[in-house]
Design a protein that fits this description.
The protein is built from 4 helices and no strands. By secondary structure, the chain is mostly helical.
Length: 91
């Protein structure tokens, strides 16, 4: 028994769970990095879906709008007179 005990003390300690923890940490890091890259890819893809020509066209359309004068019918006038407390401007 003393010889066996002496040989056991001289053997190096093997910690197997440590390698499993390192593998698990590496896996978590790899998955989080992959998720981050995927998120950046989705945002980039969505931004490319918006056509760059749409913004100038919309700006040109806004400039080409003209004000239109509408004539209020007498029925509309009665309605506005009845509800003038809710009107933002005096009639």
């Amino acid at each position: 028994m003393p010889r066996v005990r002496e040989r056991m003390q001289n053997e190096p300690a093997v910690l197997a769970p440590r390698s499993r923890m390192i593998k698990q940490k590496a896996r978590v890091f790899a998955l989080s990095a992959a998720a981050s890259l995927l998120a950046v890819g989705v945002v980039a893809w969505m931004s490319l879906q918006i056509s760059p020509e749409a913004a100038p066209q919309m700006a040109m359309q806004q400039n080409s709008l003209r004000s239109v004068s509408l004539q209020i019918q007498s029925k509309s006038n009665d309605y506005l007179m009845a509800h003038q407390e809710f009107s933002p401007a005096p009639i």
